[in-house]
Amino acid sequence: MKINTLIIDDEALARQRLINLVNDVPELELIGECSTGKEAISAINEYEPDVIFLDIQMKDLNGFDVLQKITVNKKPLVVFVTAYNEYALKAFDFFAFDYLLKPYKDERFFKSIENIINFTNNKNYNPFDEKINDLLKYIKITETSNYSQKLPIKLGNKVYFIDLNDIKYIIASGYYAEIITNDKKHLLRESLSNLIESLDPNKFIRIHRSTIINLKEIGELIHSNYGEIDVKMNDKKLFRVSKSYKKMFLTKMGL
């Protein structure tokens, strides 16, 4: 008996990669894909999948919202797929079967599938120890980060601090960097090359010699027929990913 599988991710390329991987596993039966949280709730309630691969950050609802709103009696095994390790603790609060941190390797995906198949075929099989080890790894990554959570900005004879979580993107402007937050533009006399070295790579990425973006502020990716990629931020601002940063960006996004 095959394991009915549903893929939920608002990024088309991320869904396609999962589709390709799922189709390589004879024991899995792909029953659908969803690009929004609302679609996911409807599909889970209708099809009652055995396993779901669930993105956490989506445009309408996050993955946790989806799990809270489903009404099926038989809950699916949940494999979270995300670029953000800070959700690991909360994911296991929702009884996640596994947590794939983008960019993940194919081998990591197939290891998760192996655990799912073993669990499905043998209810006495318990991958709990492995999951705890993974969780501890994510916690260690988060807690031992040496990156500052504040960015100092000098203004006259004063220095004030910006919370890095408030930064949406940073744009080069001559000898200065324009730091765009939710409510203000800040100027810092610093190069983007120096700035990116001081920013947490799990949260920020450089996509162009003149642009650094906050990963959590990405709304969607737009692909042209010529292989170019534009990043549309949550505030609708568009940025082009340059050729020299394209491979690194796609790898970071797990695509």
TrEMBL record:
Q: InterPro entries given for it?
A: CheY-like_superfamily, LytR-like, LytTR_DNA-bd_dom, Sig_transdc_resp-reg_receiver
All residue ranges annotated as the Response regulatory domain in the record: 4-117
Q: Out of the domains of life, which is the source?
A: Bacteria
Q: Where, per the database record, does this protein carry 4-aspartylphosphate?
A: 55
Q: Which UniProt keywords apply?
A: Phosphoprotein
Domain HTH LytTR-type residues, every copy: 151-255
Q: List the SMART domains hit by this protein, alphabetically.
A: LytTR, REC
Q: Please state the span of the N-terminal signal peptide per the UniProt entry.
A: none
Any one Gene Ontology MF annotation carried by this entry is: DNA binding
**What's the name of the protein?**
Two component transcriptional regulator, LytTR family
> Which organism is this entry from?
Lutibacter flavus
